[in-house]
Amino acid sequence: KTPLKQSATSHSVLTEIQPDCQPLTTPPKLKEIPPADPWTPTSNLKMLISAASPEIRSREQRRGLSNNTSEVLQAKHCLQEQLSGDEYEKSQPSRKEKSLGLLCHKFLARYPNYPSTAENNYICLDEVAEELNVERRRIYDIVNVLESLHMVSRLAKNRYAWHGRHNLTKTLQTLKKVGEENKYTQQIQMIKKREYEHEFDIDGERNEEMARSFGSNEHSEMCFVELPGMEFRAASVNSRKDKSLRVMSQKFVMLFLVSTPQIVSLEVAAKILIGEDQLEDLDKSKFKTKIRRLYDIANVLSSLELIKKVHVTEERGRKPAFKWTGPEVLPSIRDTKLEATATTWVPHISESITSKEQCSKNLFPSRVKQSFTRHPSLIKLVKSIENDRRKIQSAPTSPVKISTSSDQNLSAVPSDMAQLAAISKHQLEGQSKKAKEMKMKLALECNQSSPEAVPKPEPRTAPLAQKSALTQPLGVLPPSHSSVSPIMLPHTHSGVSYAIYLHPSQAHTVTTYSPSFMLQPLPCANVTGIKSMNSKVLNKITTEEGNNHIAKEDPRKSLTANEKQTVKPESTSQKCLKRSQALQENSLIKRCRSDDKSLDTSPTFFPSGYLIPLPQCTHHGNKAGFSNKEKAGICSLQHTTYSSPIADEIPVTASELKAVNIPAFHITPLNIMVSPTSIAAAPVLSNSCLNSSNTNSAQNPSSSVLNFTLQHLGLIPTGVQVPTNPVLQHTPVSSKPENVSHSSENMNLKEEKVSKNILQLPDHELSGKYSAVTPSQQLSVPKEPQELQTVKENFFRTPGGPNTVSSSSGNSDGTDGISQGTLYIPQRKLEVSED
DNA sequence: TGATCCCGCCAACGT
DNA sequence: ACGTTGGCGGGATCA
Questions:
Q1: Confidence tier at A113 by pLDDT (50, 70, 90)
Q2: What's a single GO CC term here (predicted)?
Q3: How many CB atoms lie within 10 A of CB A211?
Q4: Domain boundaries, chain A
């Protein structure tokens, strides 16, 4: 049968992850095949035939491929099984053979991980379904999750474009950001806590729960997160009523990205995704359905090797879970920068604020509410807006764009630019005052910070970025090292800032790494970004979940785990104590020690105050206003409410909002010297430009300091020295051999109306445009002082690494349901076992 | 058994 | 009206 042959080819491809498997011809090839088959005049007929003996074929194929790797093994197993029952063979392809995971492998095998622009990577669902001998329905399942990762995008009915992993990094970054905004971390904690309480059947103090759920749930609604380049196209083609799978898939991924041990149990995921768990009417059936769906998603994510199945063992028993095995997701440079700009940092601040909203909540409870109420659409809007903003920002600076005068799109830009510039100016002025104030504060709070360190205020504000910025563990830069501190400090001064003082205990929370916290006498120590590295270790090892402990109480109390617990008002805490105590004492102590070592410094003091720039929060809102017109309308209203000082000052029209958002824009026309080869780098540069503009290169810490810091953070091995050029540094950290082909697949960007896109980059690559910077790309970027600065900032900012999770602790005001030291999650012992 | 999750009905949409 | 998508959950398999 001819069809088999086709499938055979795909199987061979199955072998594994080889990125470049036949990048070129997949689509055409597929097409060819059908004609080859004499027996099937019609596709339908063919389908039928294939259906008749799919298992047989697959078997044959597998045998042929027996030399292949893991896949083969499975196949063999299947075969063996079947062998035992000869007669049955035909009847049972065995469920596994039909599994979505396997199907997905086949599907993925057909397309290169990094398709070149040249080839037309179109996917015809019908063809694929046919070739893979599956019903179209199944293909939808796969495509939907791929779409959620922007690995494919729908061009038209029955037609998709294959992007492979080009956009993956960017997508993940975006998802992570959104996840943080949604306070998924806190939600997870909540759920765990609840479970815990449930176990003990403790006094049903629903009050807290109610409050908590209240806070956490609201945003559970979220729309499909789009990438800058792709959304429009897709939107034009199909209605965006996207519901489940796509969105669910994204949310699921977010959970991994914001979790510190990057392990998510199905149960927790399902609850969060359902979102209504608050009501406690855990609809059994609904829950069950959710789980089912999650399995579907997990299967394809597994095929993509982004996650893998594991089991977490708790007192309760073994629970299915998945562990993130995908790339570490670092905040994009751009984002980081923005964040930096947006937020003012105090070195010691260990607190992390997940979202601006959170900030706003804390600061202004009353107002906050509004912001919280973000409608699902809002989030989306914000996202898209942000994206737009980025584009715009990058545009001016991006060399390519400049060079390409030919762009028609550019024409639009100028006017916008002008507006933005004007606005930004305005902002700057306002901010500058505040900046001064900030400086003052900083100076007071941290002796270390030298006046020079304080950069001038930057115009650009990055709303979203804020959250992450706060996340930074102050510990990274020990206060004692005054020289260093300046670096750490974000130079941004967004206008009004508020100082929040955290208790040491809270500081703990901040730490990405929860387990260690409690014991640490010195908050700073905890702060140390121990980050994600741990996660690896954690595997198979017992890990505690729900590490975040938030305590409002006096810091001293929190010094030790025991003490801390004692402090806790809740009865639960006691119980928790019992359970967790032993554990804490054991492993935690170890960790602490190690931490201490690394930290060495010991600022005994914990001035953990951090300044939160309100304006930025506002900006967030502003952003929303910014992008899509339609959305803009909606957004603008809400945002207005945000009420940041700045916002107030400025009329809130949508257009204005836009301007506000883009402040960075004018900033510096960077003279970016980009190496010709690295077009992709351009975006990066632009980012750096923005940030760096304020920053003096002089401020940069000595390389030795940098090295020291990095080493302590575990970002680089002790022996390693970071080259002067930070950019290069990056490589070790994130570099994965994903070679970034600068080539961009030329997704039909043209379609995008976005004039702002300056992306006239010759290669049009999505990644390039959007600044999805891959490690390799970064490398290619010529060193610039500014860039250096940026990189450094990134490092410092993300001591926690990809895993850095903003802890929930932030809300001291309790506005947020979760906040209030009340959120205490008992540590539980988790055993993660791989399957 | 509980964990997985295939299968395909059928509704919501698009054309 | 018909074809495409894809939510959904019964119930078969797997471990």
A1: confident
A2: RNA polymerase II transcription regulator complex
A3: 18
A4: 100-197+239-324
Residue at minimal CA–C1' distance from B8? Answer: A137
Query: 3-state secondary structure string, A15-38?
Result: CCCCCCCCCCCHHHHHHHHHHHCC
Q: How many Å apart are CA A484 and CA A473, to the nearest integer?
A: 14
Average pLDDT on A693-712 reads 35
H or E element, residue A59: helix A54-64
Contact predicate A22/A13, CB 8 Å = yes
Q: Whose CA is closest to A381, among A622, A217, A151?
A: A622
pLDDT tens across A400-427, in order? 222 222 222 322 222 233 333 323 333 3
Q: Which nucleotide is nearest to A92 (CA to C1')?
A: C13
A311 Cβ nearer than 7 Å to chain B strand: yes
CA distances from A790 to A165, A234, A235, A335 (A): 25, 33, 34, 11
Under 8 Å between Cβ of A405 and A650: no
Query: Which nucleotide in the DNA or RNA is closest to residue A54, CA to C1'?
Result: B6
What value does the mean pLDDT of chain A take? 44
Count the helices and strands in chain A (H runs, E runs): 42, 10
Query: CB-based contacts with strand C under 7 Å?
Result: A 92, 94-96, 125-126, 136-137, 140, 143-144, 157-159, 238, 242-246, 285-286, 288-289, 292-293
* Amino acid (1-letter code) at residue A835: D
Confidence bin at A307 (pLDDT 50/70/90): very high
Contact A826, A572 (CB under 8 A): yes
If DSSP codes are grouped into helix, strand and coil, which group holds residue A741? Answer: coil
Please tell me the pTM assigned to this model. 0.43
Phi/psi of residue A152, nearest 5 degrees: -140, 165
Closest nucleotide over all strands to A159 (CA to C1'): C4
Residue A291 beta carbon within 7 A of nucleic strand B = yes
| Mean pLDDT of the A740-759 span | 30
Decide: CB of A100 under 7 A of nucleic strand B: yes
Any idea which nucleotide's C1' is nearest the CA of A125?
A: C4
CA-CA distance, A431 to A616, in Å (whole number)?
A: 11
